[in-house]
Amino acid sequence: MLPLLLALSQTLSQTLSLSQALSQALSLSLKLSLSHSNSLSLTQTLSLFSLSSPLHPFLKRHASMRCIAVLSALVAVSSAYLKQMDITDLSAYPSDSTILVTGAAGFIGYHLAASLRELNNVVVGIDSFNDYYDVTLKEARAHKLERLGVVMLNVDICDESMLKTLHARYKFDYIGHLAAQAGVRYSVNHPHQYVHSNVDCFVTMLELLRHTPEVPLVYASSSSVYGKGASIPFTEDECSDRPTNVYGATKRMNELLAHAYNHLYGVKATGLRFFTVFGPFGRPDMAPYIFTDRISRGLPIDVYHTANNEEMRRDFTHVDDIVDGFMRAMKHAAPYDVFNIGRGEPVSVPQFIEMVESALQKKADRHDMPAHDAELMVTFANTSHAMRKLGYAPRVATQDGVDNFVAWYDWYSKKLQTGAGFPGKDTYLPANKMPELLTSTPTEQ
Ligand SMILES: NC(=O)c1ccc[n+]([C@@H]2O[C@H](COP(=O)([O-])OP(=O)(O)OC[C@H]3O[C@@H](n4cnc5c(N)ncnc54)[C@H](O)[C@@H]3O)[C@@H](O)[C@H]2O)c1
Ligand SMILES: *[C@@H]1O[C@H](CO)[C@@H](O)[C@H](O)[C@H]1NC(C)=O
């Protein structure tokens, strides 16, 4: 949105052949209206540029009244538009910076990279495009990111020398680390994969920052770190040393390693404990996708419950809220901290299924199943810490999020049916994308 408005103000300045000073005033006014779009009413915004405004003498001296009218109208329209979009306080997000996003072809990484790019950042996205789930979806995300102007590279986070080369070349201001082996159930039979990507290669990321500790690292942790013994709702300082699965154990390990690197080298690291994230381009191995996919195709779904027949409850959180929390944590740049990023309003799985049914206008064929021991019965984020420190406040109501996801699912499945292919993952190999990267040697620091 911001780049768009600035481009608009540039075009306008050219068309009206405004002086440099005035066109600066124009872009300033646009930025002003952006940053105050939620605290100022439309009339207040308009009066900023009216006759009573301190800007007025300046405007009068330098341009015609017609220009002032155009300016005010533009500001008013953009402010109204932003209000409708419900964007607040853009200064809480990184902008005009250079940012590395790992796992950018993944679900959350894709949304984060896209939003950061919208805020006028240089964004480099890396991903190994592994086949944990359908690679086509990762290629679809990467393709969209490239079209938004994100530099997308097929790079493994375990490749230390490539990471060094990238860091030396781009001098990142922030790192958003989302590349990991995700999924609770899969970790039951593939423990090594988790320790490799989530622990070994997390150390690679930390080592990368050892010599530039001032660059804030924000990384994905998980609600799975709350195992046995944590009380509802989950609060950050609560017991997190009795995980019920290997995935949760590796995520807790991230937080411990981050602490050690902060203690030893001053690396600034913030861990975000995400709670059941869903939304467009969501993961095919997660319940929201599976329910939507199977119900719409008339296939039965498994609904898990406890041994004594209780319903499972999840703190489903829309990806837009997750990205908001993530970008706030980047800008906040705590020396060391851990935050819950969830909605703070758990919904039972059967209730969630009803929301999908309502969005699809179709009934589910439910099969009751006992839950696996690795699964928690309830997840529930206490978000006070993130609210207080980051100004985080989840906005997307669960049914709205479900409607939004189902609309995307509809679009995507049609896209697949018509065979509209996306550029393959090899397109993004550094050798194909930026051959000069391979010949330059990383500067030793
Ligand atoms: N989605 C959720 O509900 C949720 C909840 C809690 C935590 N998380 C965490 O958030 C992060 C992002 O999750 P997501 O849902 O987007 O998952 P995802 O699987 O869609 O994204 C992860 C991406 O990382 C990439 N990746 C894996 N190993 C890599 C490696 N060694 N090098 C480079 N890239 C690699 C994968 O190809 C994938 O595209 C993960 O760390 C995950 O554990 C997610
Ligand atoms: C939520 O967390 C805050 C600390 O961030 C704590 O003071 C408060 O008691 C917690 N609330 C509940 C209901 O656990």
Explain this structure to me?
By secondary structure, the protein is α/β, with parallel strands linked by helices. It has two domains: about 1-85; about 90-415, Rossmann fold, CATH 3.40.50.720. It has 17 helices and 13 strands. The strands form four sheets. A seven-stranded parallel beta sheet has the order 3-2-1-4-5-6-11, sandwiched between helices. Strands 7-10 form a two-stranded parallel ribbon. β2, α7 and β3 form a beta-alpha-beta unit. α1 (about 1-15) packs antiparallel against α2 and α9 packs parallel to α10. The longest helix has 21 residues, at about 65-85. The protein is globular, with a radius of gyration of 24 Å. The chain starts with a helix and ends in a 6-residue tail after the last helix. The model is unreliable at about 35-45 (pLDDT under 50). The site of nicotinamide-adenine-dinucleotide (NAD) has 27 residues, from α6, α9 and β5. GO terms for molecular function: racemase and epimerase activity. Keywords: NAD, Signal. Pfam families: Epimerase. This is NAD-dependent epimerase/dehydratase domain-containing protein. Belongs to the NAD(P)-dependent epimerase/dehydratase family.
Keywords:
binds nicotinamide-adenine-dinucleotide; Rossmann fold; NAD-dependent epimerase/dehydratase domain-containing protein; 7-stranded parallel sheet; 13 strands; binds 2-acetamido-2-deoxy-beta-D-glucopyranose; alpha/beta; 2 domains; racemase and epimerase activity; 445 residues; Epimerase_deHydtase; signal; single chain; NAD(P)-bd_dom_sf; two-stranded parallel ribbon; globular
